[in-house]
Amino acid sequence: MVLMTPQALAANFPDVPDTHKNAKAIQFLKDAGTVSGYGDGTFKPDKEISRAEAAAIILKAAGITAGKTAAKLPFSDVPEESWFLPIIQKGVSLGKLKGYEDKTFRPNATVNLPESIAMALSFFEISTKKLPVEELIYDGLDSKQWYGPQMQYAKNFNLIEPDDAGNVNPAKKLTRAELAEIIFRLLTVKKDTKPYDITQNWVWTEYKENFWKLKHPADWEIFKGTKNSVIWKRDPVVGIYQAFFARIWPKSAQLSISLAENTEKLTAVQYFSKLQNIYNESYKPLKPTFVQTTLSGKNVMKIKIPEQGILDLAVYLPEKGFLMMHGEYGDAATGEFFKKQLEQIELSYQFTEKPPEPPQPVIPLETRISSLLENILIAGGWGDIKGVFPDKKLISTDAIGIGTGPVDYYYSKEANRTIKLERNSGTVLNVKDGVTIAF
């Protein structure tokens, strides 16, 4: 089993663009020589795949060589001249392939999701016999069916993901691309000995004004506020009737991100201690758990309350305050998957901020005074020059003015000048040295 290096990668199939959700998996298996295209060079990613084809690809991915033997198969529908005979013979001899009660293998039938998972786990020598099976794995799956342990493993290690409604359909007929995705994920799990990283095809959102950058699923929605933002997954059942992100529906999830000032000048230790006390008091019977670590060089505290579907993250930002992320997920079966997603979104946190504004070129005082004098009695001229004396202060106002509205008097210490201004028209009426309203 060889993992390809980036330098070894060749071009993908012409009908598998980079935007295809399974492009990475197909590319990997192509470069490894596990899958090949059709005579016209295409892969046909969305074409349904048969049980025989699935067995051939999985056998090859597992590094098992098939060869025709004299062994007789117990199936009535696997002809001697068929291309898949050696593959099925090998699978049967290894105890990895089984047929149906009517003594058929149904090689040309489209393989479904549980069959492909069971076949892949078997050929990769992964046992699920002692794996605890949840009462509800995902909506649509019956944990008491034969596939229960295999589908539980697939959930635990992210070989599969629920659809937008939180369902996994066991009768779903697999496409060539979908099988490639399962095999690629399984190969990655075998290599890394941990669940597959579900963030592979996620996107980044950055908000420098509030000092955060997060990775999230592309179909999650975003709202950015002055100090409060939300990244959320809309409940597909409620759909357009879900009012913004105001409520957590059973099949929805959200992460609200709030920036708070450190008015008490607390240290990270003091802030986290205070926060921990607040959570323990507020959720006393539920026993929240707390883990302190670092992300992007910042001290953070992770808070979990599974019974409430709460997954929070507090980030200490020296000199800038605190960034509080409140994660919540619904109580449907898909909640476990949303929990995984929220954990990964929070753990992707990166500190970011706007670069300082470049310094503005300094205009000589004489030039600015000349510009001021040139704009005397020019209607609207104040709009062009009011920013050139940033230290100006309003020292007096004549509310009656000159008949066309109030007159204001501004003094610039830097220029040592008083400016008489007709407010409504933005006209500089006169300029005098020193502080004065005697014009």
Write structural notes for this entry.
The strands form 3 sheets. Strands 3-4-5-9-8-7-6 form a 7-stranded antiparallel β-sheet, sandwiched between helices. Helix content is 25%, strand content 19%. The chain is of the alpha+beta class and 439 residues long. 33% of the residues are buried. The longest helix is centred in the middle third of the chain and has 17 residues, at 176-192. The protein has helices at residues 23-31, 51-61, 85-93, 113-123, 148-156, 176-192, 268-282, 335-347, 365-374, 382-385, and strands spanning 203-207, 212-216, 221-224, 228-233, 253-260, 289-295, 298-305, 310-317, 321-329, 393-398, 407-412, 417-422, 427-433. Strand 6 and strand 7 (298-305) form a beta hairpin. It has 3 domains: 6-192, no CATH class; 203-347, Protein Transport Mog1p, Chain A (3-Layer(aba) Sandwich); 365-433, no CATH class. It is elongated and about 115 Å long.
